[in-house]
Design brief:
Elements: E1 4-7, E2 13-18, H1 41-52, E3 61-66, H2 75-87, E4 92-96, H3 102-114, E5 118-126, H4 130-136, H5 146-152, E6 155-160, H6 167-180, E7 183-188, H7 200-214, E8 220-223
Parallel strand pairs: 2-3, 3-4, 4-5, 5-6, 6-7, 7-8
Antiparallel strand pairs: 1-2
Helix pairs in contact: 1-2
């Protein structure tokens, strides 16, 4: 498992894949990333401390992700993350969170601001089609408005290539994302055992018709493979 990398295009930054207690929601029909977890506090802290020791701070920007939300790291690991930011002079920290933690996100923003860290929160919105997101993908967001999503998230993740999606909806998702959030990350869905079926034809259509339009857009990251950021396995 690769847990440290550098992203050297567009929004240049270091990235770490930390390990947490596991996603508390873990009902999304397209995901099994919550398997990267440990409840053993000392083990979790040891892994995360080692990963964070690789951070140099050379770009002043760090993205810290884990299989779930930032609030599913144990307290020692989250403190180690913030201590690393201060020690390495990280001015901007990008984290991920489920929408259900919107109150904790607001508190964490204040904590980071007091430390001189500009916190950017990335959310796995996946699609702005509420019915598909909630009834099919089972994201568990409820049905917040676009304005409510903008109050919580600075950046968003979108998912492309799930059976039931179509190219027009994908195009609409990208435009909504670009026009309303600071940055978006598009992930091409890779089918895994016992979860949602991938639409390989839609993925090919996306790469053929949509990818060329956005591949140079500085606000858009497109992950053809889920390890394109250099972390994961």
């Amino acid at each position: 498992m690769e847990r440290y990398s550098k992203i050297l295009e567009k929004d240049i930054r270091e990235i770490v894949l930390l390990i947490g207690n596991g996603c508390k929601w873990h009902k999304c029909k397209f995901c099994n990333y919550y398997l990267d977890r440990t409840d053993i506090e000392e083990k979790q802290y040891k892994i995360n401390k080692e990963v964070l020791s690789k951070v140099t701070g050379e770009y002043g920007v760090l993205e810290a992700i884990n299989s779930g939300s930032i609030f599913e790291l144990n307290q020692r690991s989250r403190k180690e993350l913030l201590d690393t930011c201060i020690k390495k002079n990280i001015k901007r920290l990008i984290i991920e969170s489920h929408y259900m933690y919107y109150r904790q996100i607001a508190e964490f923003r204040k904590e980071c601001k007091e430390l001189g860290i500009d916190l950017k929160v990335k959310g796995g919105v996946e699609t702005f089609d509420e019915d598909f997101r909630e009834d099919i993908m089972k994201k568990g967001f409820g049905r917040p408005t676009l304005e409510q999503l903008k109050e919580v998230f600075d950046e968003i993740n979108l998912l492309v290539g799930v059976k039931g999606q179509n190219i027009e909806q994908v195009k609409k998702d990208l435009e909504i994302g670009i026009n309303n959030f600071e940055r978006i990350c598009v992930n091409l869905y890779k089918e895994m055992d016992d979860i949602m079926e991938a639409d390989e034809e839609l993925k090919k259509e996306f790469i053929r018709e949509v990818y060329p339009l956005y591949k140079e857009n500085s606000k858009v990251d497109i992950l053809i493979e889920n390890t394109d950021f250099g972390v994961g396995d």
